[in-house]
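Re: the pair you flagged

First of the two:
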Amino acid sequence: MTGPSTTNRSKKSATEQKTKIVQKWDTAPPPEKTDRRVNRTRRILLHALSELMLEKRYNDITVQDIIDRADVGRSTFYAHFQDKEDLAVSNLIHMLDMLAGALETGQSQGFLPGPELFDHIRENYPLFRAMTSGHGLDLFFQKGQEYWSTRVADRLKALLPPGRAPRVPIPILAHHVSGTFVNLLKWWVDNKMPYTSAEMVEIVSTLVNPSVEAGLTLR
């Protein structure tokens, strides 16, 4: 029979684990360059939503839940965000910034992700899955494709000789590449990451590289 002390230790351990997961994603301020007090308040609200999404479905979380967890007033919340969706989008963009950091500082092959990006998601899977469940899933992959499409376009442009135009316009090619990558990432997460990070890099490369090579052929 499990005694009260064992139960309390288990609850404490689970809480500490959730806190560590959230803190790993909560080390950078929001992207806007604002003063420290504004950044601190926004970070507290982002942190509160991240914690709540480890505990319940996104659709079941209310603004009241968020402000109670963050210990701020309702007027403070609405001074920074229009509604729960606005906060969620900010949270997702923050997550995308961190994933982009893994993409840009890791062993990426030109415009494609290196294994670090997949490793980062695997290490933070509980929070990533919580943040992309329900409505959060649609938000993440919509914003994710927009976010990566811009970065892929910049990288593709850098591969072109100055003043030359590719066979496929860069915006269309970037949309195709980012869409393929985001859909593969979604499949990988939905299926509980059955392939290693290195295998996913190889799969993405195999599917994307031929399209890029054909699309970048000069007119």
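Second of the two:
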Amino acid sequence: MVKVEYKQAGTTKIRPVVIVSNDKAIDIDMIIAPVTGQAARNEFDVPIIKWKEAGLEKPSVARASKIMMIHNSVLFKRIGELQSEDLENVLRKCRECF
């Protein structure tokens, strides 16, 4: 789990994301799934069960349908690590979606 700096509509926000890239494939760019504290909206929003252990401030979901590629220069800071069950759930939903 890391926080990423998003720039949109003239504002900058620091938001948590799950890195879903394979460790061996991480170079300059990486694939991430955004994390939100909003309620799940569809079957590809994955609740993070052990959100406190992951370093999140509140119950959250990973949006597997919203994966994107980012440059590692926008990484802000590491906040934690998903427990293996949560990570597997996110990766499985990413595979189902794409």
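The mean pLDDT is 90.

-B.
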